[in-house]
Structure formats: structure tokens, C-alpha cells
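Example for tutorial group B:
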């Protein structure tokens, strides 16, 4: 019942509401408990749409389910995708253990747990209608979230006493667990030929890895081409996702793809775009043909572009009301100024000026550009090449990589944005060197030492010892491309009256953390164990190879050399690397209420700038 309504692709709600752009977004969710359970449907209204109108649309889809507005083929397609999803899920140790744990906590005999798929195969249309009519009556709860300021009761704030931390202290239980002998696992490195193959074709390289568990494939084409190269490219891919192919309407296309057990998605950003196709190996060719037909002959409803633009403009307005999105945009502005990726998104004016003919042209020649292909599955690269290559076709080159650079103020800087809120969201950062693969171990140790886990400096010193923040994070971010810059960073969320104290401490800790032999030992142990216990999953192998290539790494897996250095790395090595940070002028960005936050204290942190939403968003 739940998947017939919402399977993210071809469910009743997916097609009738989301695909048709009747609401901004919609879906369902189901929860099973030992004693009972619940099922919910939800929708986010479009710009100018009332909550009651969105509710009526949801009720209409529920009534359609109850009246049998679906076919036996729809149930069959749901089962095909359920089986594919179940296969993919059980590829991981975590999912297999979770299934055993669920069986235990739900008091379900193991044979019943593993027999669930077979029971689902026996479900008929009449079964679904019967259950829907039984449980989906008028006795439901409806909840609305309205755009208004809530009345929050004032609660007296308790006082906190600073705790002197002893990183070496352990409970009796911890000592007992840590004393259990365990043989060290040996790291597993990637080997060409055994774990992957790289082939060169006219359109670019194919990075192929075997799927050792099942018959699922995954294909991803990555293009060094984004909205900075073609302003309307991302809009074209968004519209394509709402389109059919050839004689197939959008609904028919999605149902056809879904019936094959395949999924198709698009990604688009500033500098890069991608297409991903996945599903059952036996249906790879049929799925590939559908994908190509959609690019070549997109079937776009007459008013679909207008509907898409209307939804996206509404989404822009919602984004500016979302504190996390505003905090993110403020951070991007602080780090990159006018080159912020948020500022380079399409404005409302640009969206309204989009032309369908121009977008169709971008769709049609999208696959005519050189790209890199990541493949995971059971076919040999030679066989795959025959499916993907078009002999004699010429492919256009994409633009060279644009190096990423960050703002570097000569003095400490503070960028503040006002929002009526009782908390404050704080971030700090400073640009560092251009990526040097020889320094990756240094980068990793500083990241882990600062913010790797709950025993790291930022969490312990800010949240645990002083209770200055609800949450805190940070570390060292090293670039994904050899020409890009790295940066050191930190962040926290705190009560508004603790903003200045918490920000000062955060900045000081990121620049100059307290050194501890015990904490360093824990850091070193965590990094070593990560190498030993986390081999690269087979699905991640192609992307990992491409990442190493982007970072200028050649000669195979670089981790054996890094691991060797990890084992010999000492606290003095980390101190030497961190010696560059105390003298850096750090930038601070704060989202909070200027009526509540100590603005005078904030201004003492550095050269002060206040920015409006209109200055950090392009819409």
C-alpha cells in the first residue's frame, strides 16, 4: 500500500502530485511497532497554495487507492523494485545486522523475517484495496505547519560549572571491554585487475568494478560541465526529469522505467553534472535505450516549464525562511564572497526568462560531451563499451577545471546576518594551502584531532566541559582537486547569550588546540582502525579512482604509503603542521538575532559586516 502511493518514482502521489507539479513535494511514510503502527501522507504546498488545498489533494489520492485506481502491473512493478532494493540493502554488513536486530526486537521468528519477500509476492490488488478501506477512514489526524512565529514559554536557564576533563579516565566497564583481546585486521588495498579495470573510449574513461553480491548494475556519467559553463543546464536537467520520451508521456515513461526495476536521476551543480542509471543487469539495455530516447526526444507537457518555474520560485522563498539554508548561504558568502555558489544559482528573474527551446537544445546535446563513466556490475568493460559507445561519433571537450579559492582577509573578520531566533549559529574558517597529496596524513590527523568524534577537542572543550553549545563540529577540509585550496573550519549552535564566549573559544581551539598525549593516542588509534576496518566498498571504487585522479595521484592506491606514515606519526608531527594556524586571520560568520545577541561583543571579534538575505541569496 505504501509503495503504491509513494515509491519515489511511479506511485500515485509521485505521479499525480509531484510529477504534475500540483504541490512542491509530497510523500508517505510507514512505521511498524510491536503493538501498533502508523501511516502518514504529507505534502508541501506550492507558492500561494493553501494548506487545506494540499490536504484535499492528498485525500484524493487516498480515495483513489481505496477505489482501486491502480493495476496488477503496478503491484508487480513495486515488487520488482522492492526486490532490487532489498538486494542492494543487504550488500552491507550494517543492513544485515539490522535485519537480525529487527527480527529480535519485534519478536519475529527468523524464518518469518526472511520469508517476508515471498509473502509480499502473494499480495493482490484485492488485498491492498481491502486493507486501504479498513484502515484509511475519516478517523485520522491532520497536522498543519503554518508560517508564523510560535509562542515559546520562558524557562529559567540553569547555571553550569566548568568540568575539568581527564581524557585518561575510563569506567570499569570500558576497561573490561578494552581488555578483550582482538586480532588486528590487515588493511585491504585496491589492486588494478583484481578490484577494477580502467578503459579508454572516445567519450572518455570507464572505471569498472565488479558487483560480488547480486545482479544489480549502477552506471554514472560525470561531466565537467555545470551551470557556470551553461547557465540553463541545471534547469534543463530539472525539466528533463519532469518529461517523457518520444511517444511516452512523463507518467508512462516513469512507469515503464519502474517496471524494469531501474532508476534514473540527474545531478547538476556549479561546475559538474551527472546522470545515474541503476537497476537489474538483465534490463540494462532496455533502460539505457529509454534514457537515450528521453535525451533525444523529450516529451514535455505544454505548461510544464511554467509549473516547474513556479515551484522553484516558491522553493526559493522557503529556502530564505530555513535557518539551516540561511546559515549555509552565509558561510558560502563568507568563504567565497561574490563567488559564492549560492549567489550563482539562477535568480527568480532568470527562471522566469527560461526558454523551452533553449532547454531542449541543452538536453539534446548533453550526451555529446566527453565524460567519465563509473560502472559497477557483472559485465566486462569490453561488453559495456559496445553498449555505450557510438562508433564514429565525435565528442565535444569540456572546459578545463577552474581552481577553487577562498577569501583571505588580512585581519580577523566577522560577517553577521539577522534572523529572529533564540539560538545563534556560528562558523569559523581560514583558507590554507593548495592540496598537496603528500600532506594528506597531516590533514587527516588535524581533522580527527579537532572534530573526529565525541572525544575530540571541539566537542569536549566547548560542549562537554563548558556547556557553551548544543552542538559543535569542525576539522580540516582538504580539496578534491589538485589545484584547489584546503581550509580549516569549525561551527556550533548555542544560546544567543553565549555567542561571543562560544565563538571566541571555537576560534581559539581551531587555531591552537590544547595538546594532549592521551587525546593524540586516541586520534592515532581511530585513524589506524579506520584504515584496517573500512575497506573501500565495491560501489565506491570507481568514484574513489576518479577522486584520486582529480587530486593528481597516479600509480594506484595511495593508502599503503599513507598507512605506513600513520603508524609512525607522532604528536610533534601534528604540532609542526598546526604551527601555521595561530597566525592566520580567521573569518567568523554568525546567524542570530541582533536584538538578542551581544552585537557589541561580536563586533570586537573582528572587522564587522552585516549582510541581508538579499546580499547572500540571488533571489
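The residue assignment follows.
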Amino acid at each position: 500500500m505504501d509503495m503504491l502511493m509513494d515509491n519515489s518514482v511511479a506511485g500515485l502521489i509521485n505521479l499525480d502530485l509531484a510529477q504534475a507539479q500540483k504541490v512542491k513535494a509530497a510523500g508517505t511514510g510507514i512505521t511498524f511497532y510491536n503493538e501498533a503502527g502508523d501511516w502518514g501522507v504529507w505534502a508541501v504546498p506550492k507558492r500561494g497554495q493553501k494548506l487545506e488545498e494540499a490536504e484535499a489533494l492528498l485525500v484524493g489520492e487516498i480515495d483513489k487507492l481505496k477505489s482501486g485506481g491502480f493495476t496488477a502491473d503496478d503491484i508487480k512493478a513495486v515488487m520488482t523494485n522492492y526486490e532490487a532494493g532489498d538486494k542492494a540493502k543487504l550488500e552491507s554488513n550494517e543492513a544485515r545486522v539490522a535485519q537480525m536486530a529487527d527480527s529480535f526486537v519485534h519478536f519475529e521468528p527468523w524464518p518469518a523475517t526472511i520469508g517476508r519477500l515471498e509473502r509480499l509476492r502473494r499480495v493482490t490488488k484485492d488485498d491492498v484495496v481491502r486493507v486501504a478501506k479498513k484502515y484509511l477512514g475519516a478517523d485520522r489526524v491532520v497536522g498543519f505547519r503554518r508560517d508564523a512565529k510560535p509562542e515559546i514559554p520562558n524557562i529559567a536557564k540553569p547555571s553550569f560549572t566548568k568540568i575539568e576533563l581527564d581524557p585518561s579516565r575510563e569506567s570499569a566497564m570500558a576497561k573490561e571491554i578494552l581488555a578483550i583481546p582482538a586480532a588486528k585486521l590487515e588493511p585491504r588495498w585496491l589492486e588494478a585487475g583484481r578490484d577494477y579495470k580502467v578503459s579508454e573510449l572516445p567519450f572518455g574513461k570507464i572505471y569498472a568494478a565488479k558487483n560480488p553480491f547480486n545482479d544489480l548494475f549502477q552506471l554514472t556519467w560525470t561531466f565537467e560541465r555545470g551551470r557556470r559553463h551553461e547557465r540553463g543546464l541545471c534547469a534543463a536537467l530539472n525539466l528533463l526529469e519532469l518529461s517523457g520520451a518520444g511517444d511516452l508521456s512523463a507518467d508512462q515513461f516513469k512507469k515503464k522505467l519502474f517496471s524494469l526495476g531501474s532508476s534514473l536521476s540527474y545531478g547538476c551543480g556549479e561546475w559538474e553534472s551527472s546522470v545515474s542509471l541503476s537497476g537489474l543487469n538483465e534490463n540494462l539495455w532496455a533502460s539505457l535505450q529509454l534514457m537515450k530516447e528521453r535525451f533525444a526526444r523529450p516529451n514535455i507537457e505544454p505548461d510544464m516549464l511554467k509549473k516547474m518555474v513556479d515551484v522553484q520560485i516558491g522553493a526559493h522563498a522557503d529556502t530564505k525562511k530555513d535557518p539551516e539554508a540561511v546559515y549555509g548561504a552565509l558561510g558560502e558568502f563568507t568563504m567565497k564572497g561574490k563567488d559564492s555558489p549560492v549567489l550563482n544559482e539562477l535568480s527568480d528573474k532568470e527562471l522566469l526568462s527560461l526558454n523551452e527551446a533553449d532547454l531542449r537544445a541543452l538536453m539534446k546535446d548533453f550526451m555529446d560531451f566527453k565524460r567519465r563513466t563509473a560502472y559497477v556490475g557483472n559485465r566486462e568493460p569490453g561488453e559495456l563499451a559496445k553498449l555505450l559507445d557510438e562508433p564514429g561519433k565525435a565528442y565535444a571537450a569540456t572546459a578545463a577545471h577552474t581552481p577553487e579559492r577562498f577569501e583571505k582577509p588580512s585581519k580577523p573578520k566577522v560577517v553577521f546576518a539577522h534572523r529572529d531566533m533564540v539560538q545563534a549559529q556560528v562558523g569559523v574558517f581560514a583558507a590554507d594551502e593548495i592540496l598537496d597529496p603528500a600532506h594528506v596524513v597531516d590533514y587527516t590527523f588535524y581533522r580527527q584531532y579537532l572534530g573526529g568524534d565525541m572525544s575530540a577537542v571541539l566537542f569536549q572543550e566547548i560542549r562537554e566541559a563548558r556547556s557553551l553549545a548544543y552542538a559543535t563540529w569542525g576539522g580540516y577540509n582538504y580539496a578534491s582537486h589538485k589545484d584547489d585550496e584546503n581550509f580549516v573550519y569549525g561551527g556550533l549552535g548555542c544560546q544567543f547569550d553565549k555567542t561571543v564566549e562560544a565563538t571566541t573559544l571555537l576560534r581559539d581551539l581551531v587555531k591552537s588546540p590544547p595538546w594532549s598525549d592521551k587525546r593524540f593516542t586516541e586520534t592515532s588509534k581511530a585513524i589506524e582502525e579506520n584504515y584496517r576496518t573500512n575497506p573501500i566498498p565495491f560501489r565506491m571504487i570507481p568514484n574513489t579512482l576518479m577522486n584520486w585522479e582529480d587530486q593528481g595521484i597516479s600509480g594506484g592506491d595511495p593508502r599503503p604509503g599513507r598507512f605506513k606514515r600513520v603508524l609512525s606519526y607522532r604528536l610533534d608531527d601534528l604540532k609542526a603542521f598546526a604551527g601555521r594556524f595561530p597566525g592566520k586571520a580567521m573569518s567568523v560568520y554568525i546567524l542570530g538575532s541582533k536584538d538578542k545577541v551581544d552585537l557589541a561583543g561580536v563586533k570586537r571579534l573582528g572587522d564587522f559586516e552585516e549582510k541581508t538575505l538579499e546580499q547572500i541569496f540571488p533571489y
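The mean pLDDT is 96. Compare this with the pattern of hydrophobic and polar residues in the output above.
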